[in-house]
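Researcher: Structure prediction, please.
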Amino acid sequence: MEEVANQAGLTKKMSKEGVDAITSVISEALARAEKVALVAFVTFQIIKRKTTRGRDPRTGEEIQIPARKVPKSKAGKGLGEKVG
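Model: Predicted structure follows.
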């Protein structure tokens, strides 16, 4: 939070509140299965994974891994250019 506070010219408390608010809004939108895009930075969305077969690592027994929804993120062009 210190770096965010320094770059934004805010107190650490204010920067923490801002970051917490952003992550809360993103989490709530994903819980509603909405796509969230921070243009040129990252896009978050929920994808559905199908039921698959797997193995219990302790017993080696074949098991069914149930279908579920999972968050997925994709880096935006701007982020990719900065780190790549």
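Model: The longest strand covers residues 42-49.
Researcher: Thanks, that helps.
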